[in-house]
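Title: [Solved] Phosphatidate cytidylyltransferase 3D structure

Original question kept below for reference.
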Amino acid sequence: MKQRIITATILIAIFLPIAILGGIPFLFLAYIMASIGLYELFQMRKLSIFSFHGLISILLLWIFLLPNQYFEAINITGLSKIELAFAAVLIFLSYTVIVKNHFTFDDVGFILLSVLYIGIGFFYFVQIREEGLVYLFYALFVVWVTDSGAYFAGRRFGKRKLWPEISPNKTVEGFFGGIVSGLVVAILFILFSNIQIPILQLIIVTIIISIFGQMGDLAESALKRHYGVKDSGNLFPGHGGILDRCDSWLFVLPLLHFLIF
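Solution (posted by the thread starter after getting help):
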């Protein structure tokens, strides 16, 4: 626990000023986090990021992460992001032939889904920050407090397992405790911030993102269980890897953007 607290303190000390500053430093942080996240997924699959397919994957991820104004300014191909992704599909499938299936169709599917999962999540990480710091903090606090609320409610009241095949320790009581905890965050933002969302809409949105934040955590648990790993990485002592810390964000931030903006 001591190690977790020390690591969390250091991470907050690094993240908070960059989040407040926003702009290019925040975009740079998103690029670093997303690239490490993709590396962690490659490690689970036992694929090398330092390879031809790894290079194409990173380039595609970086394209997805570019805010639209930057993408339009530097895009010399005239292709959209989706069209560039399709070009990557053709390159990957051609590569399977060249290497005689040492790199397979299944690997192509895994990489493309990984790039979309990481790329879209962190793209909206940047987009939400551009809409306003208060919206980013609202989303992150709902995620963090939902997670903590689910943990403590589950320990205190938990009797019925939520999804034992995926995450044996999560309970139905913890799931609803997480939602209630998220609603407390929404009320605090209504009372003490300048968040520009009508009260009823904010409550509904909070319930939705609290549910999907927990779903994001379960999806990451399912992925780790499938590949037989405890954590996505060991970058943060006591906390695991980037994906262990950001799995709920990757579900919540795109959803929040769609629901509000």
